[in-house]
Amino acid sequence: MQHRYSRNRITNLTDGDGNVLHDQEEIGAEAVKYYKNILARQPELQEIWNSINFLPQPHKEDTVIWQGNISGKFSISSAWEYIRKKKAQSPLADLIWFSGHVPRYAFTLWLTSRERLSTMDRPHVQRIMSTNVCVLCRESPETHGHLFFERGYSRELWEVIASKVHLNIPNMNGIPLLMWAATNCTGKKRFGHLLSRHALSIATYFVWQERNRRVFQNQWKTCRTLTGEALHQLWTLLLQHTKPIPEWAMNDWNLQGAELSSSAVPVHLAHPYSGQEVSVQPDVQVQLARPSSGQGDSAQPEVQVHPAHPTTGQGDSSQPRGDVQVQIARSMVFWAEIAVSFRSARAQPICLAE
C-alpha cells in the first residue's frame, strides 16, 4: 500500500508484512523487490528485463530500432530474412529460378523436382481415382519418373524439343534428368544453356497440361500437335528475349525480321455479305488475287491463306489451312480495316503445319 501527499511522490509504503516504510531507500528497495517477484513468475518478462543494459531516461522519447539489419530500419525483405529458416541452396535452383523464366513453367518444374504434382501414385489421389494407370501410355503406373519423360508419348515430345535446341539428352527421366540438366545446362552466359532450360520447363509444363486434359476433360491431343504448341511457345519466348541472340539461333528459329507487338490474338475476318467469320493467324502468307477489271465494286477478289512453316517460315501453298478461301468485296474501307488488323496483330507462327 502506498500513500501520496504530493504529485508523483511516494511518502510511505506498506510492505507485505504490514510494516510502514518512510525511508526513501527502503521504499525503493521494496518496490524493486515487488517488481522482481512479478517478473520471476513470467520467464519471458524476466528475459526482457535481463536484456536491458542501460539506465532508463524518462525525460527522452523512446525510439524503435529494427535489429533485422545493420541500418536499424524495417523492411519486408529484412523481416523475411530474419524469420525464415535458412538451408543450403538446392542444386536445381539455377535450373528452375532464373531471369526471364515464365512463372507457370518455373512453378510446374519446381513441383516436378519436388515430386509434388498430383500424380496417380500420390496417396490423396489414389483415394479419388479408380486407377493409377498413366493416361498417356495406358500401360504403366503413373509416377513422376514415368510421366517425365520415361517413354512413349512424353519421351517422343521431349526428344523432338531437345533436338530442336541441339541438346544431346541421356537416357534418363524424372529427377535424374533434372540433376543432369542442372549440371550441364546452367551456364549463365551461354545462350544454348538458356534455351535448353526453357525447353525443359516448357516440355514438362505441356506434358502435365496434356495429362490433366485427358484425366479431367477427356480431351486428347496428338504428340505432333502438342509438340508444335510447345515449340511455338519457345519461339515466342525467343521473340521476347532482350539480349543479343546468336546467329545460329536466329536461323534455326526463323527470327530474322520477326517482330512482337502488344496483341496476342489472331485477326478475325468476316465475309462482307454472308457474315461468316474466318480466323487468320497474323503471320500467315496472304495472297490477294487481283479483281478482274471492269466489274466495279461488286468484284470479289480471292484471298488464300497459307499457314507458315514453324522453322523455315515458308508458306505451305499445297495445303492451305482448312482450305480457307474467302471472297471479300473490294471496298476501300474494308481493305483499310484488314491493313490495320494485320499491322496491330502479333507475329505468331503456326507450328507443324500438316
From TrEMBL:
InterPro entries: RVT-Znf. It comes from the Eukaryota. Residues 289-323 are annotated as: Disordered. It holds the Pfam family zf-RVT. Residues 74-158 form the Reverse transcriptase zinc-binding domain. Residues 289-298, 311-320 have a biased composition (Polar residues). This is Reverse transcriptase zinc-binding domain-containing protein. The lineage of its organism: Eukaryota, Viridiplantae, Streptophyta, Embryophyta, Tracheophyta.
